[in-house]
Here is the input.
Amino acid sequence: MTKPLDDQERFGLQLGLVARLWRSEIDRRLAAFGLTESRWLTLLHLSRRAEAATQRELAEAVGVRGPTLVRTLDRLEAEGLIERRSEAGDRRTKSVHLRAEAAPILERIEATAAAVRAEIFSDLSHGEVTTCLKVLEQITGKLGGAPRAMLPATKTDEG
Here is the structure.
């Protein structure tokens, strides 16, 4: 006989499921434009930073290992969407910069992500979302991250 899950176990499982489903829905909608999750997520993280990111910072933000990110960056660079530059103090460290050519693709990514968010949050009150966000930030802190540590430095507060 299986033991029923308590609320904390259910919360953890549900949280993982929501994250996967959310990204999968955006991925499904962007696939028609030839954008894989690794490509759109990398471009999105870069666009939301106030300044360029190192490859290491970007890999951490996207949640992949360095070699996996390098393949994505190679393709984005070949398409003229990003540019990698050696850092002055350490030639081994590369910073990643968006190019102007990425703007139309970023508009499509942002519009798609906004549409998914609008659907997800359509019947939730501002108070419900705020409460959930506070809980998630507390959990993030207990897991060793600052409440906003996983978020890139943003130009705006829109997500």
About this structure: The helical segments are 7-31, 37-47, 55-62, 66-78, 103-121, 126-142. The CA atoms of residues 100 and 141 lie 36 Å apart.
